[in-house]
Write a sequence for this structure.
């Protein structure tokens, strides 16, 4: 059977909040009918802040859904109508206090394509200037800088479990021509 799109025969929202919408689609493909649930999420702005010495500014934060602290890159949702570049600059400053002189796109990706339309946009941030962070009330984070060598080691050990950080770091290392991850 060809890889054609499903025919949507009916659609309705089964959950709608300010953070997430869940849509139920009745679908048909060829002679088969089914139900598909789509989690609709705003676009994500993912920032890879690189200091002049080549180290990367990362954050550690408690993630309630997985029940643990994760080592991540600054990231967050773009507000409706907010240009993704503005969201990237805002998230960097809110979570780390840094401002960047320049941003470079590292592309986008779909972290949950089987269940969601969520799209992450990755930007490299360069020319960083420190300043005060402007975190939201429930954003309790710690920032730390990690050298490229330690990032490769942490990736190889599985110590960076956040998907946004993994994709961004692997793309950055690929552009630098150094993606050899040491084995643990």
């Amino acid at each position: 059977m060809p890889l054609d799109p499903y025919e949507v025969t009916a659609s309705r929202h089964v959950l709608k909040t300010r953070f997430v919408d869940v849509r139920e689609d009745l679908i048909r493909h060829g002679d088969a009918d089914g139900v598909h649930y789509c989690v609709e999420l705003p676009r994500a702005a993912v920032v890879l802040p690189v200091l002049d010495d080549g180290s990367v500014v990362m954050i550690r934060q408690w993630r309630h859904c997985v029940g643990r602290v994760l080592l991540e890159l600054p990231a967050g949702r773009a507000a409706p109508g907010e240009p993704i570049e503005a969201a990237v600059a805002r998230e960097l400053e809110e979570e780390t206090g840094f401002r960047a002189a320049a941003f470079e796109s590292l592309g986008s990706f779909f972290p949950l394509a089987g269940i969601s339309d969520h799209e992450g946009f990755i930007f490299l941030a360069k020319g960083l200037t420190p300043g005060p962070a402007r975190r939201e009330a429930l954003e309790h984070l710690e920032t730390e800088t990690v050298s490229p060598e330690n990032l490769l080691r942490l990736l190889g050990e599985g110590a960076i479990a956040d998907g946004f950080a993994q994709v961004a770091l692997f793309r950055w290392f690929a552009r630098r021509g150094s993606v050899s991850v040491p084995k643990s």
User: Anything to note?
Assistant: The longest strand covers residues 99-109. The chain has three helices and ten strands. The domain at 44-176 is CATH 3.90.79.10 (Nucleoside Triphosphate Pyrophosphohydrolase). The chain has a mean pLDDT of 90.
